[in-house]
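Changelog-adjacent note: as of this version, every example in the card shows the full chain rather than a window. The one below runs 390 residues end to end.
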Amino acid sequence: MQALHFGAGNIGRGFIGYLLNKTGYNLCFVDVNEEIIKAINDTNSYKVELLDSDSTQETVSPVTALNSIKERKKVIQAITDADLITASVGIENLEKIAGIIFEGLLKRLEKNKTKLDLIANENAVRASSTLKKEIEKKASKKEMKQICKYVGFPNSAIDRLALSRESEDGLVALVEPFYEWVINRSEMINLELPEIEGVIYVDDLDPYINRKFYLINMAHAATAYIGFAAGEETIQSTLAEPEMEKFIRRVLNEVKKYIIKDFDFSSEDIESYIDKTIKRFKNENISDNVLRVGRAPIRKLSYEERLIKPLRNLFELDLAADNLSIVIAAAFLFKNKDDQEAVKLNKYIQAKGIEKAILKFTGIENKELIDKITKEYYKLKEQSIKSVIK
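Full-length structure tokens:
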């Protein structure tokens, strides 16, 4: 079995590629980072290290890698031959890989009319559908109709912290012990392949996407913005402060109310999920920088994103969102000179003011909500974060 994976980054190597290899696929990565590509091809392997007390290491082999710029024809041939294609390149980069995938799928229609699933595994909602739309932009209606006859775009939800470190053996993927990869089986077109080891297959992905995105992703970002406001460097050091942990738990307890109401999860299930989430975030074997986690605040403050959608839903349900409002205010105060979105956000606030910034970047038009976030914004500017969240 041949698997082709776009993106040889931390998630690609430490999570998706790792499980594909465990399932028995001959795995080939596609990337543009020549250093990583060369390191993989030099040994036909790479290392994964668990962020546990023993720093457990595993070697993933055999694997190969191709450069999508320098070896375009080989990548197109690999698409033609693949039994499964996956990706983890970042949601903003799906448009960049859509062109070569489209070329490969057209070639495949000529040479290999077998069914194929293409799964984009990103930290975003319905990433495979997003990739499909990017491919549609390249294709005629006739071409896309033919592609969809043989190619499925099942959506997935992924959850695993993945970092990396340099070693004598090259770049090592660092991953936490916990992981969750959920795939929507009802959107798959090829059900003849063996199930991927460790994957949960469901017929309705929405509950899992929402639980993950609006609890874990929300709380991760919330901890980063609150930690930054408190002068902390990492997620772990932030949650080592008892009052900070209590505050993040209060945020999670606000958001969980709409998750329980809208999706088929019991209160006990969500309580356990929250406890597990906090435990993961506090893992002392991880040093998760708040600047990294908080990056791209404009995206994270947008209308359907992890902070704003829960706020809107809670407001519509007439449920309290006092703690979440503080988090959102803190996100508008986030600063990182190396993050273009943070710089753009700061400049806009300086030029137009916080109220116009809230309207522009969140899409919220309700005056009560805008006033609530504005009030917390000025409180955070004038007071210490600990006095605001107590």
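Structural remarks: The CA atoms of residues 347 and 353 lie 10 Å apart.
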